[in-house]
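dumping this here before i forget
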Amino acid sequence: MPHVRPHRRLPTEDPAFDPERRRALRRLGALAAGALVAAGGATAAAQEQMQHGHQHGAGGAGHAMGMAPAEGATPPPPGAATGRPDAHAIPWADGRCAFCNMTLATPPAAPQGTGFRERTYAQWAFDGEARHFESIGCALGWAYAHGVVDGEGAALYVAAYDQAGPPSHAQLLAAAGATFLWAERLPASMMAKVGAFARQADAAAFVAPRSAQLGRRRYLDLALLADLAPLPIANLVPLLQRQLG
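structure:
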């Protein structure tokens, strides 16, 4: 049974530090942030704009924040397993993101063009099952909400941003060894601004002819991204509210 570790305990010298209290405060913070959003006087038109399809030009594949999460969106129960399971087959035809419920594949009518979401696909693999995501930001937000950690009975796999066409599961990169490019204007689903590359040299080769277009940029690794999670993405507060219950 896949192992899902509770949120990592941050280093502290405070003897009164209580990780369970920190987890409860995180939940309350997400709920309070959601209440502030609602108190801001969101109109029906604003609520409609929050739908992913409207905000990202998803060609009707978006979904309203009030809808139930996709079936099987929660992680497997804790177990004693360790290590990194292999990647699983990707349901490109009908799969949806376990965090935001958008389709994994870019709809034919999407203005971003073919392959937009496929370039930022990510997967959390467990023994015998997997959770699929249409952006790296979604995958890390989901892991943050559920305490899933790479190498502890789970493994994060990501598509190479510079690969042509949708990858098969055998072509996915192990996130633990990948280089992640954050760029100010990187075209990425959910506005996550993060793409994965097999090596930093590959990321640099991608950036070189697009330097002015991409704006400010940084190279990151999975450990740093996990420490920074949840990453800023579209509709982050409502999505975390839903995942945290």
